Model the fold of this input.
Amino acid sequence: MTGKRRLCPAARLVLMATLLLGEGAAGPVFAEPTFLSKQYPRCTACHYSASGGGLLTPYGRSLSREEISTFGRQGAGGASAVEPTGGEEGFLFGTLASESPLQLGLDVRPSHLQVDLPGRTIPDRNFLMNLDLQAAWRRDRWTAYGSVGRAPRGGDQFVSYEHWVSYQVTETVSVRGGRFLPAYGVRFADHTSLTRAGLDLAQDDQVYGIELGVSTDRTLLQVSAGPGRAESLVDDDGRQSLTSSTRFQIDLAPRTVLAASALYRGPSETAPRSTATGLSFGYAPAPWLTTWTHADVQFQRLNASSRAYIFANQTSVEALRGVWLRISPQLRWTDSDPRGEIRRLVYGLDFYPRTHWHINLSYYRDRLPFSGRSTRTLLAQLHLYL
Done:
């Protein structure tokens, strides 16, 4: 990407491994777009956040039990029978009443990481990615949301990735303000995806801003604007700049979604202004199959303007109830520097044995065609949401 110092191929390989090894692996919980196959094209069906991710609503917890988990189903009739019951899907397995306006969650994520990097020895690691307390309070038209946890860089510091307040103005119009990830594209659960990390929409790239949402039966429009990346504003690192985003989604069918997005970042002390546009298409032809395709074009304004192109597909198949197999080819290249081309292939398995449990295995193969070098990474995680 021009406008930044160019790295040699070996340094790029180290950087890609670092994204998985270090702070890039410690982001907040994201929505999993696989579940478009369950005929829920909107994040707000299960999440407090309009752009997905984070704490589930009581209904979302019950839906997770009935529709997703392997052994948690209690009722009959599928989603139509889902009702918040305050059972195992509740915080600490039902200790907090599901009808309470206050909902709590604890995200615990122990992980194991192996990286095969040619010419370098990187020891296997067992570490705690996340230990975050999440809270949401909803009363009438108001919703307040926040999370706090250990900073990804370790030590005794704590960080709040998201904290915002929203107000439902009318049945179709809502507004929120605070710290959140701007709505853009499809929010893959893997925040190291080239369509996320490549556009600075990864683990700690939330912005401070105000977002307007307009939702109808078939469409969703989200527009946000603010002074820029939250961490840059807090640390005063020279990267803060005016940031605005727009995402328009149309539900073509209960299992078919099309979304167009735009993201603008003004010039900062360390980077030129840039604009990204993206198109996302989600299709679930059967309750056990979901495929998402997302493509981006990013423009940077320099003396010699350049474009970056990003493409990703994620296809997931439910082999057994609560057991999903996925494959995700990804590609990123620029029109001005062939050394920056990255080709990634991800194989994964997601297992949801019960409502609060998610076991994730991901195998990454990154290749740099210019140098012919590659790196392989295995990431195993246990997500436990209490």
Remarks:
- The first helix runs from residue 9 to 21.
- The radius of gyration is 20 Å.
- The helical segments are 9-21, 58-68, 194-197, 230-235.
- Residues 308 and 334 are 4 Å apart (CA to CA).
